[in-house]
Every structure is written in C-alpha cells, then in structure tokens.
Amino acid sequence: MHAFLICGSTEQKRAEKVNDLLQTFEVLEVDELKTLKKHLIQTVRQINKKLLIPAQDPQKNRAVVIYDAHLLTQDAANAFLKTLEEPPKNTLFILTVPQKENVLATISSRTQVVELLGPSFETSEGELDKANLIFDQLTKASFSEKMKIFDSIGKREEGISFLVGQIIVARNLMKDFIKQK
Fold it and tell me: By the 8 A CB rule, do 112 and 6 touch?
C-alpha cells in the first residue's frame, strides 16, 4: 500500500503511529503542513514539486505526512487525490484525521485505513475530584455560567475528557441513589 489514513484516538496517539510507520523512510518535509489552519492547493502543489526532486538516498523510500488531513480545502483534496491516484514511485503517504469520515471518501478508499482505539476512559482520583467539582458547579450555575464552563473546553480531547468525567460522576450518583432505595 502506498498510503495510510490514520484515524481515531487522540492527536498524540496518531502522531505516535506516524512515527512508528516512518522508521525506514526518508521524510519529505513540507513546513506548511505543520502550521496551517487549512491545507491549501498551493501546499499540495508544493508537495508535488518536492516529489519531482530525486531522493537524497535513492535506496530509501520517501514518505509525505499530512497531519490533520481534514483541513484540506476542497481544491487541495481534489489535487491530492490526483497524486494518490498516480503516486510517485517509492513514496508513502500518511494522512491523519480524527475520524475517517473527515476526508473525501475517494481519498479514504485509496488508503489503508488504520483506526486507532479511542482514548482511555480511566480517570485518576484527581480527575474524578475535578469532574465532581464541575458537576456541582453545573448543577448550581445559571445558563450563562454553564455556557462559560462549556466555552472553556478547548480541543476535542479535552471535550472527550470532560464528557467522560461527567458520565462517571452521573453514573456514581445513580449508583448511590439506587443503593438508597
């Protein structure tokens, strides 16, 4: 296979899987792929130009990594699709996304999909105490105060952690309620 689509779990776990796959490859660096909020068609064109340059070590295969491939604009995704359909020789493409459905079906169909397991739902005692505190705040807060709490949640992983904590607190409250009956 000449392309992998790594999806699921956390951003960190996807990056770890990328590093595992890259052990024997010469990585083609495209600086914009690390800093942009969107991947534009110019970025895909830059990748294609760099792929025309012979590898530094002809014995090694090359790899191109596109983190957060769901940030490809429609034009960029279509341009990249053409690259996937006619891949350069000895080149591996690795794309990462939170969910497989975040990229065009035509892109995911041309890759080997690697679905990582979701984040662990284990919580430490400190995380459980924090979840209990937030649960208490939410039950007593006004609507606008609740919105401020929700607005403070940043990335997807933080949102998942927040929800898991609240689910555990609610489950524990339900267990206590059932025991009292």
Answer: no
pTM value is: 0.63
pLDDT score at 118: 62
Q: Which tens digit of pLDDT belongs to each residue from 98-115?
A: 888 889 999 999 999 998
Look up residue 144 and give its two tokens: 């606008």
Query: Is the separation of the CB atoms in 4 and 94 below 8 Å?
Result: yes
Please check whether residue 169 is in contact with residue 132, taking contact to mean a CB–CB distance below 8 angstroms.
yes
- Name the token pair of 37: 């909020």
In this prediction, the residues of the chain whose per-residue pLDDT falls under 70 are 1, 29-37, 118-123, 181
Strands (E), 22-158: 25-27, 61-66, 91-97, 112-116
d(CA 151, CA 164) in angstroms, rounded, equals: 17
Q: Are 90 and 61 in contact (CB under 8 A)?
A: yes
Alpha-carbon distances of 63 from 2, 59, 142, rounded to whole Å: 9, 13, 52
CA-based nearest residue to 84, from 171, 169, 3: 3
User: For the chain, what's the residue count?
Assistant: 181
Q: Are 140 and 155 in contact (CB under 8 A)?
A: no
The Cα 19–Cα 30 span in angstroms is: 16
**CA separation for the pair 85, 137 (Å, rounded):** 53
